[in-house]
Amino acid sequence: MARNKEALVLLLDVGPSMHGVLQEVKNICSTLVHKKLVYNRSDEVGIVLFGTKETCNELAKELGGYKHVTVAHDIKVVDEGTSQALQNLPAGSVPGDFLDAIVVGLDMVIRKFGNTKGKRRLCLITSAQHPLRDPPEGTKEDQVDTIADQMKRHDIKMECIVFREPGVHHNAVMEENDRLLYQFRNRSVAKVVQVDSPTSLLGALKTRNVLPVTVFRGDLEVSSNFKIKVWVYKKTAEEKFPTLKKYSDKAPPSDKFASHEVKVDYEYKSVVEPDKVVPPDQRIKGYLYGPQVVPISSAEWEAVKFKPEKGVKLLGFTDTSSILRHLFMKDVCLFIPEPGNTKATLAVSAIARAMHQMNKVAIVRCVWRQGQGNVSIGVLTPNISSANNVQDSFYFNVLPFAEDIREFQFRSFSSLPSSSQPTEEQQEAADNLVKMLDLAPPGREVLKPEFTPNPMLERFYSYLDLKAKQPDANVPALERCLRRITEPDPDVINQQLPLTQNLGKAFELKENPKKKARTQDRLAYTAGDQAKSVAEPSAEKDGVLGVLYPPIENIGQIRDLNPVQDFEAMLAKRSSSTWVQKAIEEMQKYTTALLENSREGDNYEKALECFAALRKACIIEQEPEEFNQFLTKAYERLKGDVANFFQLLSSKNISLISKEEAPDSDVTEEMARSFYLKQEAACQ
C-alpha cells in the first residue's frame, strides 16, 4: 500500500439497542466517505454489520459460527457504491456480538493485504449492552489477547465508539464488555471513546485523518548555556472548506486524458499606451502615503523586512492569573520533548511540574522558520500527564501585541438609574433561564468540543454527495441531528415551558413612546406640500397637467434661501446611519457662520429659527448632548460679540435640553432655566 493510503473497515452495530441512533451512524460514516472522496480518493473502505437477522461472511462459510454478522461492502476503493451501502443500513433484529464482528473485519483485512505494509484501521460503533457468546476454547479475555496479537502482527489499529444514553442502567454485562474493550486499549491496539448523546456520536469518529507535521524542531532556549530540544505540533487548527477549482468543459468528451484544467494569465498595460504590454522588469509596487504613491522595489522591500533568527527563547515567567483567556489568538500548539531524548524529556517534565506547582506560565518569543518575517510572543501552559506512557508537555497560545488589542468601553449597569436596573423577580427569571440551558450540568457535559462536529462542514459534504448524484438538486433543509448543534434542545424548552413563560411575564413588553414620538415628529421634517402629495392622489392621475404637490428635493447641505427647510430635508433623507449626525453638524456650522458674519443683528432672526429647529431635532433624535454642547460652546465663544442674540434666545426660552424633554440628557430642568444667569455670573 502507498504511504498515505488507508484501508478502513467499519464495524457497525445495527441491533435493537442502536435503532435510535442509526441515522446518526449513517451520517457520520457517510461524512467519512465523502471526505475520502475529496481528500483521499485512493483509500479503501469495507463495511461489516452485526446484529442482522442474516449471516453473510467468509468465516461463517468456512468455519461456522460468527452468526448475525454481515459483510455489506467488501474492502474497495471508495466510490458511490460505498456511500450507497451506508444509506441502506438495515435495522437488525438480534443483539450483536462485537467480538465476532472484530474477528470478521480483521480477517477481511488480512485476506486483502496479507503481510504488506500500510495503514489499516478498524472502526467499531456499538452500544456494547448485550452478552457475548463464549469462545470454543479459553475465556473471553484470552480471545481478546489473541485478537490483539494478530492486530499487532499486522499493524492494525482500532477505534471503539461506545454509545449509551444517560438513562441506560449499567449492569454486569456492560461492565464485562467495557472491560474487554479497555483490554484492547491496554494492549495499545485500540482507542475507546464513550458517548451519551446522538450529537456526540457525530463527532466521536474522526472523519478525516490529518498527518502530524511539526511546526518547529529545535531548541527551547532557557539561557545561552541551557537549551532543550523540543518539537512543536499544532493542537487545534480550523478545518476549512475544500478549495473549489476552476473546471473547463471545452475538452472533447472523447478525450479520456483531458485534465480540464483552467490556466489564468495576467497582462499589465499602460494607461498611456493601452496596446502595449508592460513587462515585469518595468513594473513596481507602490504604497499610498498621503496624496502620493511611494514606489518600493522588491529588493528594497526585502531589505526592509525584519529577519530574525529561527528559535524559541524563554523571556520569563508570570502568574497564571495575569494572562487572561480572552487574549489568546490563533491556533494552539503543543510543545513536546524531542522523541527519544531522555534529557529533554526530564528537563521539560521538571520545568512543567515546577510551573504547575507554583501556578506559573512562561512567556516565550517564537520564530518557527529561518527567514520568517514576523515574530510571535506567546504563553506556555504546563500540561501534566496522568498516564505513565505519556510525556509532560506545554500548550502554546499566541499573545497579542498592543496593535492587536481592541479596547471598547461600555457603561456598567451600576451607573444606570434604578428604574433601568432589573428587579429581583426579573433577575431570578434570568438566572433560571441560564440554569435551564446549562450545557454542563453536574456529572454531564453537552456539546463537548472534541465530540461536536462543524454543522456547516457536515452539511457541505452531504450536499456535495447529493449534487454529484443529482446535478439539479436543491439544498436540503438542515438535518435534525445537526440542528441540535445550532439550536437549543426543543425537549428542554418544552419541559421547562413555565420558566420561559415566567421570563416573558417578568419583562413586560411595552411600546416605546420615544420611538413612536420620533416617528411621528419626523413627519415634520417634510414640508406640508410633500405630506399632501403622499396622502392625496397626484395631479397626473387626475388628468391635471403638472404636479400639484412636488416633493422636496434631496438636499446635501444647508443653503441661505431656506436653511430650516434644507435641514429638515436632510433629516428626512436618512440615506445612511450617519446622515442624521451629518445634518446636525451642517446646521451647527451654518448657525455659527450666521452669528459670526452678523452686522448689527441682521442675521439674528434667521439664526433664532435655526437654533429652534436644531433644538427640536436633537430632542426628537435623542441627541440632547449635541445641542447642549453646541449652545454652551457658542455662548462661551461668541457672548462678547453677539450678547444681544443670547438675550433673545433666553427670552424665547431656547436653553439647554433637560431630562424632562430627553431622558438621555444630563441636564436638570433647574440647570436649563438658570443657564444664561449662571453664564453671566461666571463672566462677572
3D architecture notes:
38% of the residues lie in helices and 17% in strands. By secondary structure, it is α/β, with parallel strands linked by helices. The strands form three sheets. It has a seven-stranded mixed β-barrel with strand order 7-8-12-15-14-13-11. A six-stranded mixed β-sheet has the order 3-2-1-4-5-6, with helices on both faces. A two-stranded antiparallel ribbon has the order 9-10. α1 runs antiparallel to α3, α4 (98-113) packs parallel to α5 and α17 runs antiparallel to α18 (579-596). The longest helix is centred in the first third of the chain and has 18 residues, at 22-39. It starts with 5 loop residues before the first strand and ends with a helix. Mean pLDDT is 84; it is low at 522-554.
Number of helices: 23
Strand order of the largest sheet: 7-8-12-15-14-13-11
Pick out the low-confidence regions. Answer: 522-554
* Spatial extent as radius of gyration: 37 Å
Q: If you average the pLDDT, what whole number results?
A: 84
As a percent range, the share of helical residues equals 25-40%
Shape, principal axes of CA atoms: elongated
Structural class computed from helices and strand pairing = alpha/beta
Please report the distance between the alpha carbons of the first and last residues: 98 Å
Would you count the extended β strands for me? Answer: 15
- Main sheet? 7 strands, mixed, barrel
